Amino acid sequence: MSREFPDWINPWLAAQGRRDFGGTMPLVRMPRLLEMVEDEGGEAEFRLSVSSDIDGRPELDLSVKAGLTLVCQASLKPYVENVERRTVLTVIAEEAEMALLPDSAEPVVVDEGRVALATLVEDELILGLPVVPRNPEFADVNFSSGELPEPEEDSGTRKPFAALGDLVGKQR
Fold first, then answer.
1. Buried/exposed code over 79-89 (b: 16+ C-beta within 10 A; e: otherwise)
2. Which 3-state string (H, E, C) describes 52-105?
3. Is residue 157 over pLDDT 90?
4. Domain boundaries along the sequence of the chain
5. Model's pTM, two decimal places?
6. CA–CA dist 54, 104 (Å, integer)
7. pLDDT for residue 91
8. How much is the average pLDDT of 107-131?
9. Confidence band for 1, pLDDT divided at 50, 70 and 90
10. Which end of the chain, N or C, is less surrounded by CB atoms within 10 Å?
11. Pairing relationship of beta strands 3-4 and 20-26 according to DSSP bridges
């Protein structure tokens, strides 16, 4: 794990110094994300630049990148979803300040004047996950037509739904 960052930052102090943070973070530090992925191993790469917006509020320019193992809902097999996101967050001290922000601003409310970098990275990765995980190999398959893709050559693995295709064919 590369570590060029603290666990918590004070965004106002970091903005004054126009600080940059970055490195890699293990996925096991992100409990909400772990509930959504198949494999707890691996890590996320991130880069955070802190500056101030025109009104003097801290802005967090965050880029994240990770290969996350999900279960394809078409094949029910694991695959790696490459997630890359970049966002700019405007720091506010309390939710009441949201009304003062422009519509285009993405707010983040700080906890006791500080923000956890792992939480920011985790949030962005969760937002980057597909609603329905689907391996790109099945992108052209129309499952609503009732036609199933030809199975790959078997390497000794069990195919629990192979008989289902035969049954559907016999009923028509």
1. bebebebebeb
2. ECCCCCEEEEEEEEEEEEEECCCCCCEEEEEEEEEEEEEEECCHHHHHHCCCCC
3. no
4. 3-150+157-171
5. 0.77
6. 14
7. 92
8. 93
9. very low
10. C
11. antiparallel
